Amino acid sequence: MSAISFSSVCFHSAHNWNNPKEFGKLRKQQDGKLLVKCLSKSGNPISQNAVRVGILGASGYTGSEVIRLLANHPQFGIALMTADRKAGQPISSVFPHLSTQDLPDLIAIKDANFSDVDAVFCCLPHGTTQEIIKGLPKHLKIVDLSADFRLKDISEYEEWYGQPHRAPDLQKEAIYGLTEVLREEIKNARLVANPGCYPTSIQLPLVPLIKANLIDIKNITIDAKSGVSGAGRSAKENLLFTEVAEGLSSYGVTRHRHVPEIEQGLADVASSKVTVSFTPNLIPMRRGMQSNIYVYLAPGVKIEDLHQQLKLAYEDEEFVAVLENGVIPRTQSVQGTNYCLINVFPDRIPGRAIIISVIDNLVKGASGQALQNLNLMMGFPENLGLHYLPLFP
Amino acid sequence: MSAISFSSVCFHSAHNWNNPKEFGKLRKQQDGKLLVKCLSKSGNPISQNAVRVGILGASGYTGSEVIRLLANHPQFGIALMTADRKAGQPISSVFPHLSTQDLPDLIAIKDANFSDVDAVFCCLPHGTTQEIIKGLPKHLKIVDLSADFRLKDISEYEEWYGQPHRAPDLQKEAIYGLTEVLREEIKNARLVANPGCYPTSIQLPLVPLIKANLIDIKNITIDAKSGVSGAGRSAKENLLFTEVAEGLSSYGVTRHRHVPEIEQGLADVASSKVTVSFTPNLIPMRRGMQSNIYVYLAPGVKIEDLHQQLKLAYEDEEFVAVLENGVIPRTQSVQGTNYCLINVFPDRIPGRAIIISVIDNLVKGASGQALQNLNLMMGFPENLGLHYLPLFP
Amino acid sequence: MSAISFSSVCFHSAHNWNNPKEFGKLRKQQDGKLLVKCLSKSGNPISQNAVRVGILGASGYTGSEVIRLLANHPQFGIALMTADRKAGQPISSVFPHLSTQDLPDLIAIKDANFSDVDAVFCCLPHGTTQEIIKGLPKHLKIVDLSADFRLKDISEYEEWYGQPHRAPDLQKEAIYGLTEVLREEIKNARLVANPGCYPTSIQLPLVPLIKANLIDIKNITIDAKSGVSGAGRSAKENLLFTEVAEGLSSYGVTRHRHVPEIEQGLADVASSKVTVSFTPNLIPMRRGMQSNIYVYLAPGVKIEDLHQQLKLAYEDEEFVAVLENGVIPRTQSVQGTNYCLINVFPDRIPGRAIIISVIDNLVKGASGQALQNLNLMMGFPENLGLHYLPLFP
Amino acid sequence: MSAISFSSVCFHSAHNWNNPKEFGKLRKQQDGKLLVKCLSKSGNPISQNAVRVGILGASGYTGSEVIRLLANHPQFGIALMTADRKAGQPISSVFPHLSTQDLPDLIAIKDANFSDVDAVFCCLPHGTTQEIIKGLPKHLKIVDLSADFRLKDISEYEEWYGQPHRAPDLQKEAIYGLTEVLREEIKNARLVANPGCYPTSIQLPLVPLIKANLIDIKNITIDAKSGVSGAGRSAKENLLFTEVAEGLSSYGVTRHRHVPEIEQGLADVASSKVTVSFTPNLIPMRRGMQSNIYVYLAPGVKIEDLHQQLKLAYEDEEFVAVLENGVIPRTQSVQGTNYCLINVFPDRIPGRAIIISVIDNLVKGASGQALQNLNLMMGFPENLGLHYLPLFP
């Protein structure tokens, strides 16, 4: 069996077999080393090489989304799932939509035996996450989906989260998991702080533009929109169907906790402090996130320069696509997938541009990017288990 | 029966009778003249004073919304309803939700006898409206809900609508119907060009601020969101439930036809050309509109100045409310009503502010404001027939 | 001012003035006695006759719906509103959509002074309601929207609600408030047990058919569908937007608490025990309820007999409409209104029929029927404050 | 590489590797023959064995759903896609959500070269489909998703579709594609008539019960609910977001075209004519279908017998699951998947039962079952490309 042919199976890309263009693309992404990793020593890739994954906090939406994605992952298996308040229950009692799956029962974290586990997705609430990760065995690779290790400056963490950081040493070790921007660091990381959904949708378009000095970093205005799953699964009156449906509302105006993370990411590439205007809006839909970003062009820069710079920055990326001129990204086009779609438009006010980016807040904005990161951390192609087309309609 | 007591009936405000604060408010709004008009010559206000209203284009959403509002209007009765392609049919065949009502059948405009009609709401598509209004008898008061008479500069009309204006003389006569801003002109108008939904939601907060020189008119960024009914009732693939639900999309980026209307209204008070950044977004809800407006403060101006100026500008208005500090307006709070709710928030970027305004696009953004205008044009209190509380949930 | 003219104002039916057919209908509904009642002793209907209403439990959806309806009621004013856990707060802190209204602040029931109150809507949860109503002053007219006084047989209450009834004497006094069926009893009642939403939508079509012996009472199958507001406003995981949207589920299969109420109502007219098959379904919409009822015709009976019997039964009713042959009732057609729309269809299986009825669960299914009842109890026309057309779209 | 290990990759079931129970299940489903087929002659499964698939009518929802499913299919590749009115366009102009995929452009059927194609999914409207399939080369395996070959009795076709059948010979050849019921016939078929969504959701629970004589076939009452995608993608007023959202309506009462297909399927196992009561309801959600089926038990039969019979009938099936006692199937639990979930409940009326089944109307109700069938027709395991977990929320 030739490596090339099997690689197609491995990447679940059978639909492209008869398309020469696509083959070129696949080849570019898969160097020999990756293929060897994927196939590994002739024999049994699953039983010998498979990664045994734990999901900490499997009763929330990011946890169940990890489960969904792993269902089509050729190398990762679920070894254990925790949910302290639901310990002892089958996952189907928490998520009836998983009742057809043969999954381990939920256990309490304290009862988890991590000696048979290689890596964990940590899907716990911020605040408590620090202590828990501090207590995990050191052999584990960890992708933390909470906010607890995203801010490098722990004084900023204290300011926005109202409590001192309890694991400052781990914070120093943590790598920020914006895959396309920090891929090499992620590959070698033991602990990855998976980015927030808003920060992902905002940094992906802005980082290449700031890096290339194409926009003014002093006047970035972001009007972002999110589906309701971004608020998690806790039973709150303001998240009831009756309260959310058929309406729209801004929230956290000027003080949403994703602000420091956004500004940190932009400042890193700008090499100077960045303050952004950021307003999130709750939209009556379950998933999806869109950021409309209003920017001023740097002197002499044209809209087309932005478009080309983004095209260039992401031409080799599988999960970030810059659309053709004039095509408006839609959240429906990424539902259930790890894609981020971006485009740039001229503003009526000369010297300005409008950037629109869309992601699925639970995939590229959470569990999908987490899996992308763990793939890298374990030495696999980053797209394993992420070959989903959007569920539309 | 005392005038005061009856006025309460007239204004359907019975729920306030036991509330002294409210009585003060009512008295302020109702001068003697209005009360006399409303009650009129001892006797039969309905049969003698009632206004006979025609609805041209009753098969669309703005038409049916006029019908809904008139159901609780003490002075207006529906004399005729037209819908050329549905002529001869009962309204229930077009709008099953009106089947319980005793309404005249739909007729073709050419068959309408306007001699028994005092006023018309013109709910027809732009373009054809000009010719039709040109042909109407001159005794009619007209509120036109199309875009055809909103732009004073007919060359601008031609630019944005792709055809020369066919009734330039009528255009000169037309008064722009943003009630709170042009109330006195509207009272004496024969033809009112009812504002678009986006322009209403944007001008109401911005006009008082520009008038008071509190904001920079060169850097106004508007990210607006609309429910789907704003697109009307035509059967288009992109408006299907399956295409719209569970997603979000910007549209008409940088070239939405409401732009010149918005800029015209702001330029009028600024006394100079105004160019705004305007991006509308389609939200998966039936009704509701929110405009997030990002502005730069004029030198020395503070957020609180904006809040106070808006409070001042609208303190006597029934339908525009400036919320208390920190309260975020929600579209759910105006659903089915003629209210516009506004608030101002500090931006993270110093020297800037975020203004949020919400309306129901079919009421204050269309048929409600149209009725408010016709009330004024006929000499009635402007709130007749508009006493609806939001339908929530 | 003539009685006729004022009656039109009183009934908010101005839109019908130019429609001779409608006048006939109005005259039929308004006998002299009602008009006199409505107008009362020459003078000030509001200040002298007005009914001072209390709302117990104003922080839930049925409470806020009462508030919405009273906004256009010419005779009822709100004297007090209670919500124990929110006592001391303005209603706008609980329902932002009411922030434009001048309403009394919320108080605790124990602090309510009922000496200035004529009637109360009791919008409290079942169970606690019994004790509270037992403690209310006897001069109060009470419409109870909970389930606590709906079941005549208190042993049945205990069976379905898991606790003994604590006010059996009051239970004997309570009149079941299905207005069209028990109008005369309601007029003289002091305590009305307002029907549940499902029972209302089911009894309205079935009672006349059973009364006329047109259907077999042994084989009634009901598949009913409800919007989410039927579940109230409590923060439960299964009512979150994310859990409800884009899906459908049956619930309470074979054991929904509305069953004994439905069977009691049908047994009353059948004069024998009735057992029905009843399956409710939760639909991703905020309001609206539809019951599809599958019945066997009595020997010799035809579909058309059912249609005619229903037409006959409801021909003088304002709020129950039997549609023309073949027209399918839609929940959208009653949204925000007190209407019940009914129709009958032939089944493919000979000798059977399908009955479809729709209501708004919060209006005819709760607060609207409650107001209809209180109107009657206070001697007013039952349609006061209920003149709303559906909010569509 | 051992066959066993690869089979896991082939089945994308990596998540089960550490679960001994699951291994047993997989082994049962995969006999040696299937594994050989899947892997085939040592070498290149894709380039030598891969099936080249055409999609006729790729611009509708069933077409795009086939594309979505094939993205994770290891053996099928898309060779051509037709859409006559969109010929020459890229698929992204019709379905923006597919713009990230490298797919062939749309062509007209008349321009399709079928010599390089092994099989087609025919996703065209009923009526025209007959002629088109008649004209296709005979070497093609065909799964037809239209209604054109579902009714064995062509006079019945003419009665329900209003035109004589134009390919009666093909009709004789066609195999009805209800996979779990007619698997062996499907394996050898050249033309499969893929079942309708309602018939699938109804026959799967009823066929085993009728076969075992457990229910009365004379009194089957079905109240079914469907998401809006069941109506396809044509631009019709009644399918607009504004018309469908926040409401519910029955349609096609007593005369829905799926009735003869349902009755044919049940009659086949009952060996006598079956007439059912069938009422479909349109639900404001994009996908999902639920059938509530009310049945009378045969003499002496108990609810538990039904449950056990269904458990038994489907114990070896991957895509049909009978839930544990008391668990209510929800449409959210199958969204985006090929599963059918079933359960049985006691009715309040003795001697009766309530059966609830749910599917995704676009997957098990259309494109998923179509792929399941083509897998069988081509000699592959039927679950290839169908390993999706539900998208929830």
From TrEMBL, chains A, B, C, D:
Pfam families: Semialdhyde_dh, Semialdhyde_dhC_1
Domain Semialdehyde dehydrogenase NAD-binding: 52-189
Annotated catalysed reactions: N-acetyl-L-glutamate 5-semialdehyde + phosphate + NADP(+) = N-acetyl-L-glutamyl 5-phosphate + NADPH + H(+)
Keywords of the record: Amino-acid biosynthesis, Arginine biosynthesis, NADP, Oxidoreductase
Biological processes, Gene Ontology terms: L-arginine biosynthetic process
Pathway of action: Amino-acid biosynthesis; L-arginine biosynthesis; N(2)-acetyl-L-ornithine from L-glutamate: step 3/4
Domain of life of the source: Eukaryota
Active site as annotated: C197
GO molecular function annotation: N-acetyl-gamma-glutamyl-phosphate reductase activity
Annotated PROSITE patterns: ARGC (PS01224)
Family matches, as CDD domains: AGPR_1_C (cd23934), AGPR_1_N (cd17895)
EC numbers, comma separated: 1.2.1.38
Entry keyword annotation includes Amino-acid biosynthesis: yes
Family: Belongs to the NAGSA dehydrogenase family. Type 1 subfamily.
NCBIfam families to which the protein is assigned, alphabetical: argC
Protein name: Probable N-acetyl-gamma-glutamyl-phosphate reductase, chloroplastic
Organism: Flemingia macrophylla
